[in-house]
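2024-03-11 09:14:02 DEBUG pipeline.ingest accepted 1 chain
2024-03-11 09:14:02 DEBUG pipeline.ingest length=143
2024-03-11 09:14:03 DEBUG pipeline.predict start
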Amino acid sequence: MQFDPKVNKLSDQYLIDIIESGPEQYQQEYIDQAKVELKQRNLSEEELVRLINEYYLNSYIPQYQQNQQERERRAANKFVSYTLGEMALIGLAAPFILMGRYVRTKDSLISLWAENLIRKFWQRLICLIMGVAIWYFVLELAF
């Protein structure tokens, strides 16, 4: 079977990419043709090792760095908190926030928890509970 692009026109590095990626990304016949082509090129063992190392460095290090940055960001999020003014506003608007019709906020409890904003999550939850309680007692006393 002929594939496009033809295996014999591909670079050594691309052939290594095909072989190492495996059948999850390429048809087995294409992988077999890439192996045959790589053998026909008579590359030295040192060259093959270099190409394979480059493949793994290019494939996994950027992903690892991105994951590391995400872990650092989420770890830093643990200690982010609301100011007193923000907490007061959340408490005053608690019934409206919970109804969800009148006040739209980007910091829902679910999104705070998902972003590992643990301190903000608990502050918001307590402010909402206290706000509803205060509104209840104010309205109870008023009527």
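2024-03-11 09:14:41 DEBUG pipeline.report DSSP finds seven helices and no strands in the chain.
2024-03-11 09:14:41 DEBUG pipeline.predict end
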